[in-house]
Amino acid sequence: MNATTRLETNDVEKLYRRYAPMVMRRCRGMLRDEDAAADAMQETFVKVLRYRKSLDARYPSSLLYRIATNTCLNVMRSKRRKFALSAEPFINSLAGRESTEDRVLDAWELDQVFLGVRESTRRAARVHCLEGKTLAETAQEVGMSISGVRKRLRALRKQGEARLAC
Q1: Cα-flanking dihedrals φ and ψ of residue 33, to 5°?
Q2: Do domains 9-82 and 88-159 have the same CATH topology?
Q3: Which three-class secondary structure state does DSSP give residue 162?
Q4: Fold exhibited by the domain 9-82
């Protein structure tokens, strides 16, 4: 491989033979799981193969190290997201509950579901979902614009994932 050309398929094969052990060590060190590390190593070389025409191969070990690191970080992020639960069915079931006990329990559950979410967003969700107030009433109560409340609630629903403290 010379510095002015892009990678070809046979170059990627050569890179794999030469640098696969290094990439595997990096993935193993980051993920601490042999199977996940092997998958991440393979994904690293798939990315190199997929984007070979646009990659600069002057420093292949640095390039592969960076791609492997980013791949492992993505694996770690996706593992954290897998443990999250969808909050949407829960949120939609809250409106219209009348009993005081149900409302107190709902408020506690809502607090558990939205751990890590900004207080202003939690408060808007609580007012809108638990108390059944309109967006305008919610905005007035929490001191935000209607579009601000709408955006926060939309982002919360779009996120669709909330952590439950079990």
Answers
A1: -150, 120
A2: no
A3: strand
A4: Rna Polymerase Sigma Factor; Chain: A (1.10.1740)
Q: Domains of the chain: which residue ranges?
A: 9-82, 88-159
The pairs formed by 19-23 with CB atoms below 8 angstroms and a separation of 24 or more are 19/60, 19/61, 19/64, 20/45, 22/61, 22/64, 22/65, 23/64, 23/65, 23/68
Per-residue pLDDT of the chain (166 residues; tens, 9 = 90+): 444 456 676 788 889 999 999 999 999 999 988 999 999 999 999 999 888 888 877 889 999 999 999 999 988 887 765 544 455 555 555 555 566 676 666 666 666 666 667 888 878 887 887 777 888 889 999 999 988 888 888 777 765 444 332 2
User: Is 88-159 in CATH node 1.10.3470?
Assistant: no
Q: Closest Cα partner for 127 from 140, 109, 114, 118?
A: 140
